[in-house]
Amino acid sequence: MDSLSSEIKRSFTLFSLWRTLAWNDVLNRYRRSILGPFWITISMATTLLAMGPLYGSLFHLSLQDFLPHLCLGLIFWSLCTGVINESSTAFNDAAHFIRQIPLPFPLYILRVTWRQLIILLHNLTVVPIVMLIYPPDWSWSMLLLLPALLITLIFLSSVGLIAAIICTRYRDIAPIITSVMTLLFFVTPIIWQLSLLSAKQQYFARLNPFTHFIELLRGTTLGHCPALLEWLLTALFALAAALIAMTLISHTRKRIAYWI
Fold first, then answer.
1. Is 250 exposed, middle or buried (0-12, 13-18, 19+ CB in 10 A)?
2. How far apart are CA 41 and CA 29, in angstroms?
3. The whole model's pTM is what?
4. Which of 59, 163, 173, 247 has the highest CB neighbour number within 10 Å of its CB?
5. Are 114 and 85 in contact (CB under 8 A)?
6. Which helix (H) or strand (E) holds 193?
7. What does the H/E/C string look like for 12-62?
8. Would you say 249 and 161 are in contact if contact means Cβ atoms under 8 Å apart?
9. How many Cβ atoms sit within 10 Å of the Cβ of residue 235?
10. What's the pLDDT tens digit per position in 61-94?
11. What pLDDT shows up at residue 67?
């Protein structure tokens, strides 16, 4: 456990390394592109303009209530899927590093997480435009977005580390994870609202951990103060995922290089 603790600590002390790697990943992905990562922003804005009026009319909701809900739901869900899906292939993608340099394995997950944070910041440029058209309830509760985002990133990075280990050992799991995340999109309140469900349906919807994280992030961004239960549940999910990830990496970190 001591060696594992030192490995995790070393991963964070190498912040400049995984930050640079993540930034280069973004640059390489959009090299020779005029708008670069802002193509993602344009895609997000186009999706929002197409889905907002359509689903708003289907659910009989005013755009003032529905468009910010949809906008933030899509943006934060993009963060969730990006971290987990790309983490599932993180070790395989970094095989040339792993074979040659003895770097701590959590570093590669932090690289993915930071890369997705950069993309998140690009996507968030859509939010001020939506808020300018449909102003939220401005309050100090918006500052709670920072701890909410921190809890979410701990959860996503931990799940990403678990996925990376399993997918490195069993290559067929990565497409399954992508399919599961696609399925979870439809059972998470992103294009629909919890208030539209009956009490029984809401109970089942809340069995999905991503429901709580999306509601927490979206609620704080819109100036709402989430219930204490939401904070406790998301913190417990993050803690449980972190403990599972630490246990799994402690038993497999000496084998990962041989699996690649």
1. middle
2. 15
3. 0.90
4. 163
5. no
6. none
7. HHCHHHHHHHHHHHHHHHCCCCCCCCHHHHHHHHHHHHHHHHHHHHHCCCC
8. yes
9. 16
10. 787 888 888 899 999 999 999 999 999 999 998 8
11. 87
What type of residue is 167? Answer: C
CA-CA distances (angstroms) from residue 6 to 105, 143, 227, 253? 12, 32, 36, 13
Quote the CA–CA distance of 146 and 140 in Å, as a whole number.
Answer: 12
Using alpha carbons, select from 20, 19, 27, 156 the residue that is nearest to residue 82: 156
Is pLDDT above 60 for 1?
no
Q: What is the DSSP letter of 137?
A: -
Which tokens hold the place of 200?
């029984």
d(CA 237, CA 230): 11
Tokens of 73: 């739901």
- The DSSP annotation for 101-134 comes to S---THHHHHHHHHHHHHHHHHHTTHHHHHHHHS
Helix or strand run (H / E) with residue 252: helix 228-252
DSSP assigned state of 103: -
**Structural contact between residues 227 and 111, judged by C-beta atoms closer than 8 angstroms:** no
**Token pair listed for 96:** 């040339």
Q: Give the residue carrying structure tokens 């349906």.
A: 201
